[in-house]
Design goal:
Layout (H helix, E strand, L loop, with lengths): L8 H8 L6 E5 L11 E3 L9 H11 L2 E7 L2 H4 L1 H10 L3 E4 L1 H8 L4 E4 L9 E5 L4
Amino acid sequence: MKRSGILNADLAGALARLGHTDHVLVCDSGMPLPPGVPVVDLAFLPGIPSFADVLDGLLAELVVEGATAAEEVRAVNPGCAALLGSRLPRLTLVPHEELKRLSAGARLVVRTGEARPYANVLLRCGVAF
Protein backbone atom coordinates (compact mmCIF):
# COMPACT_ATOMS: atom_id res chain seq x y z
CA MET A 1 0.00 0.00 0.00
CA LYS A 2 1.19 3.52 -0.80
CA ARG A 3 2.40 5.54 2.16
CA SER A 4 1.47 8.96 0.82
CA GLY A 5 -0.05 10.80 -2.08
CA ILE A 6 -3.27 9.72 -3.75
CA LEU A 7 -4.39 6.30 -2.53
CA ASN A 8 -7.37 5.86 -4.88
CA ALA A 9 -5.99 3.44 -7.50
CA ASP A 10 -8.29 4.65 -10.29
CA LEU A 11 -7.35 8.27 -9.71
CA ALA A 12 -3.61 7.60 -9.34
CA GLY A 13 -3.57 5.62 -12.59
CA ALA A 14 -5.62 8.20 -14.49
CA LEU A 15 -3.32 11.02 -13.35
CA ALA A 16 -0.24 9.07 -14.40
CA ARG A 17 -1.64 8.80 -17.94
CA LEU A 18 -2.20 12.56 -18.37
CA GLY A 19 0.03 14.55 -20.68
CA HIS A 20 0.82 18.15 -21.49
CA THR A 21 -2.30 20.21 -22.28
CA ASP A 22 -4.73 17.45 -21.19
CA HIS A 23 -7.67 18.77 -19.19
CA VAL A 24 -9.02 17.50 -15.87
CA LEU A 25 -12.45 18.63 -14.68
CA VAL A 26 -12.69 18.78 -10.88
CA CYS A 27 -16.36 19.21 -10.07
CA ASP A 28 -19.03 19.35 -7.41
CA SER A 29 -21.68 16.68 -7.11
CA GLY A 30 -24.14 18.69 -9.23
CA MET A 31 -22.03 19.40 -12.32
CA PRO A 32 -23.36 17.64 -15.44
CA LEU A 33 -20.79 15.02 -16.41
CA PRO A 34 -19.63 15.14 -20.02
CA PRO A 35 -20.50 11.94 -21.88
CA GLY A 36 -17.68 9.59 -22.79
CA VAL A 37 -15.13 11.08 -20.39
CA PRO A 38 -13.70 8.76 -17.69
CA VAL A 39 -14.98 9.70 -14.23
CA VAL A 40 -13.34 9.03 -10.88
CA ASP A 41 -16.24 9.61 -8.50
CA LEU A 42 -14.95 10.37 -5.01
CA ALA A 43 -18.31 11.61 -3.67
CA PHE A 44 -19.21 9.84 -0.44
CA LEU A 45 -21.55 12.18 1.45
CA PRO A 46 -22.59 15.78 0.77
CA GLY A 47 -19.42 17.77 1.36
CA ILE A 48 -17.16 14.71 1.66
CA PRO A 49 -14.63 14.92 0.22
CA SER A 50 -14.67 18.68 -0.11
CA PHE A 51 -13.78 20.44 -3.32
CA ALA A 52 -10.88 22.14 -1.51
CA ASP A 53 -9.42 18.86 -0.26
CA VAL A 54 -9.62 17.20 -3.67
CA LEU A 55 -8.21 20.24 -5.46
CA ASP A 56 -5.29 20.47 -3.01
CA GLY A 57 -4.57 16.75 -3.44
CA LEU A 58 -4.57 17.05 -7.21
CA LEU A 59 -2.40 20.17 -7.19
CA ALA A 60 0.17 18.27 -5.12
CA GLU A 61 0.32 15.59 -7.85
CA LEU A 62 -0.05 17.60 -11.09
CA VAL A 63 1.73 20.39 -12.87
CA VAL A 64 -1.01 22.84 -13.82
CA GLU A 65 -0.31 25.53 -16.39
CA GLY A 66 -3.80 27.02 -16.50
CA ALA A 67 -7.31 26.69 -15.19
CA THR A 68 -10.85 27.73 -16.11
CA ALA A 69 -13.86 28.18 -13.84
CA ALA A 70 -17.35 29.64 -14.13
CA GLU A 71 -17.55 33.40 -13.63
CA GLU A 72 -20.74 32.85 -11.62
CA VAL A 73 -18.62 31.44 -8.79
CA ARG A 74 -17.70 34.99 -7.71
CA ALA A 75 -21.31 35.95 -6.89
CA VAL A 76 -22.79 32.58 -5.88
CA ASN A 77 -19.89 30.90 -4.06
CA PRO A 78 -17.35 33.57 -3.03
CA GLY A 79 -15.50 31.17 -0.74
CA CYS A 80 -14.78 28.88 -3.67
CA ALA A 81 -13.84 31.88 -5.81
CA ALA A 82 -11.28 32.91 -3.19
CA LEU A 83 -9.95 29.34 -2.97
CA LEU A 84 -9.53 29.11 -6.75
CA GLY A 85 -7.90 32.53 -6.92
CA SER A 86 -5.39 31.65 -4.21
CA ARG A 87 -4.47 28.22 -5.60
CA LEU A 88 -4.58 28.96 -9.34
CA PRO A 89 -2.93 32.27 -10.29
CA ARG A 90 -3.61 31.72 -14.01
CA LEU A 91 -7.36 31.26 -13.53
CA THR A 92 -9.65 32.25 -16.41
CA LEU A 93 -13.36 32.83 -15.76
CA VAL A 94 -16.00 32.04 -18.39
CA PRO A 95 -19.80 31.71 -18.28
CA HIS A 96 -20.93 28.42 -16.72
CA GLU A 97 -22.42 27.23 -20.01
CA GLU A 98 -19.03 27.74 -21.65
CA LEU A 99 -17.32 25.78 -18.87
CA LYS A 100 -19.73 22.89 -19.48
CA ARG A 101 -18.96 23.05 -23.22
CA LEU A 102 -15.19 23.08 -22.56
CA SER A 103 -15.55 20.16 -20.13
CA ALA A 104 -16.54 17.89 -23.01
CA GLY A 105 -12.87 17.94 -24.04
CA ALA A 106 -11.61 16.81 -20.64
CA ARG A 107 -9.53 13.66 -20.48
CA LEU A 108 -10.64 12.98 -16.90
CA VAL A 109 -13.41 14.06 -14.51
CA VAL A 110 -12.86 13.96 -10.75
CA ARG A 111 -16.17 14.31 -8.93
CA THR A 112 -16.07 15.53 -5.35
CA GLY A 113 -18.75 15.41 -2.68
CA GLU A 114 -19.00 19.20 -2.71
CA ALA A 115 -22.62 20.36 -2.43
CA ARG A 116 -22.11 24.12 -2.93
CA PRO A 117 -22.77 25.51 -6.43
CA TYR A 118 -20.08 26.35 -8.97
CA ALA A 119 -17.31 24.44 -7.17
CA ASN A 120 -15.90 23.34 -10.51
CA VAL A 121 -12.62 23.95 -12.30
CA LEU A 122 -11.04 22.70 -15.50
CA LEU A 123 -7.28 22.21 -15.01
CA ARG A 124 -4.87 22.25 -17.96
CA CYS A 125 -1.87 20.01 -17.35
CA GLY A 126 1.64 21.24 -17.79
CA VAL A 127 5.01 19.53 -17.73
CA ALA A 128 7.55 19.33 -14.91
CA PHE A 129 10.53 20.30 -17.09
